[in-house]
Amino acid sequence: MSPKITGYKTHDIRFPTSLSGDGTDAMNTDCDYSSAYVKLYTDSELTGYGMTFTIGRGNDIVCMAIQELAKRLLGKDVEELFANMGKTWNYLSSDSQLRWIGPEKGVIHIALGAVDNALWDMFARSRNKPLWKLVVDMTPEEIVNATAFRYITDAITRDEALAMLREKAATRAEREAKVRELGYPAYVTSAGWLGYSDEKVARLTKEAVQAGFNHFKMKVGADRDSDLRRGKIIRSIIDDPQYLPPGTKPRDPNGPDLKGKNAGPTGSVLMIDANQVWEVPQAIDYVKSLAEIKPWFIEEPTAPDDILGHAAIRKALKPFGIGVATGEHAHNRMVFKQLLQADAIDVCQIDSCRLAGVSEVLSVLLMAAKFGVPVCPHAGGVGLCEYVIHLSLIDYIAVSGTMERNVLEFVDHLHEHFLYPCSINKNGRYNVPSNPKEGYSIEMHEASIAEYECPHGSYWKSVRA
Ligand SMILES: [Mg+2]
Prior knowledge:
Number of helices: 18
Strand content: 5-15%
Bound molecules: magnesium ion
């Protein structure tokens, strides 16, 4: 007899990152990285852990929405839920009253992300596999059944998805072996937060080069002169062979993995991120004026829902060799569908917690592969790096079949709160999560919950006292 879901508990967990300037950009000036965290219980030992991410106030509202959705799972047989995760996702997103406060956007949708992520975690734990391995061991039919397919069949049909997955199925094992050996390519953002001084930016950039990274991202959009100055500081370090780790040769900036990315003489790539601050014409002018620091792409140049605005920016920047990336605030698969259909993006930045969990992520991975756009997930915050390595592994092994031009965001914050934290190897690449007990890698230490739960955790009590 398979277990049934018997209960759930949410935790509003907030880390006081606003005190250090971590995570500051042109839009988000005082982030307290937060997790709206949920545990799903069964009548057996089996438990699922899930979360979605916020930056502080409002995290309690998300927790309330999670409770409303998790309630719909009470009494359900887990094997019936696991047998068709796409159907389960449709069930969870189809409560007509809760749907009204979306649909499929805002608080209710990111709350669904936490619940769907928790169910996938439970599914992976029940099979003694990390989440990515659970998915890449599925048949193409099982993966398509696990995908949120509603409203995207004008961009990709189930049959097309099946054909794509089948084409890649025979060579999955080769790619799995390769990525286990090499790790998955990553880039760093931690050096380029707006709240950091020039000295701190230079020091962190040198450290990142030493750690083996060769893609770097900087926040822009608050002050053009300062952006240009910081961009030149970063470029002067990443383009200078003297800072490379001992024994490392510069990479060929025109090689197949770097071509078209505006790589400098050592093969290093710079990306810039405006976090939505500009009007469309302003974005075009501002980014043109930063052309001399040679970014690969501008990320989130304008409002995340403005699909045609992104398309216009991409068209205008094309002659300058600068691309457009977005997705961390693209609130559902239909936004990604239209970004792809409108030729609006060069890089697809899914977010593991803004999309409503693994099932909706699968739909975007499939569409991006069909349109030939690389997926470079958004991460950072708290827990996002733990999540996205699984998604990029699924993309590489089972869906797109390529990782050579992809880079997965890495930010070195708050990993110590997780039982199975992500990690980076000496070549600046993500290690493959390989503990059969870790599920989707998001279980948090009980001591961290006790300290940072808001408002009654020991940290927040001490602040008030
Ligand atoms: Mg960003």
